Amino acid sequence: xxxxxxxxxxxxxxxxxxxxxxxxxxxxxxxxxxxxxxxxxxxxxxxxxxxxxxxxxxxxxxxxxxxxxxxxxxxxxxxxxxxxxxxxxxxxxxxxxxxxxxxxxxxxxxxxxxxxxxxxxxxxxxxxxxxxxxxxxxxxxxxxxxxxxxxxxxxxxxxxxxxxxxxxxxxxxxxxxxxxxxxxxxxxxxxxxxxxxxxxxxxxxxxxxxxxxxxxxxxxxxxxxxxxxxx
Length: 231
Prior knowledge:
With 231 residues, this protein is mainly alpha-helical. The chain has one domain (40-220). The protein is built from 8 helices and no strands. The chain has helices at 5-28, 31-38, 51-80, 86-110, 147-163, 169-192, 198-219, 226-229. Helix 3 (51-80) packs across helix 4 (86-110) and helix 5 (147-163) packs parallel to helix 7 (198-219). The chain starts with a helix and ends with a helix.
């Protein structure tokens, strides 16, 4: 599963451009985060108290954990059997570097952004800070960026990566739609529950996608372009 250099650079450019654009929009218009979160606030983020939605969130979390452990288990089994590891090694490293390392290990631990439910606008005692602004409003497990947003984006990307070559056109279309809906649902619940701002989820999804893209050539060396290969 190898891309040529022009295709890879084009895709990477689009992901990077989207990340920069979303960052610029939320920095220029930080009120977008407040306005979006306020849609779900009625004397509290009441959807957070709905048992069905809480159960749905837990099911999604367990599903993401199960997928991560599945990738680890397959990697170990193939390692012990001395079978090809590239696809599973790539998947495991993406999980470790993206949602675990970058999102949870760095941003959520050190960036200090308070969650929507904790800021004064929504009944808390913390101050609102825009995306990317380093602050001291949260000490641990903070809002920026979304752990579940990054985890579901990584899960969806890797499922597509592993399944894509085995599917026909219709299967790929349906898989893409299903995974896209899963990402929107998981990230959307975090906003609706008042646990993350919209920018947290968007940026977490984009950053984890960017991580996967940057790691790809380490496992799948890029082909030369067709033009170069004819010389």
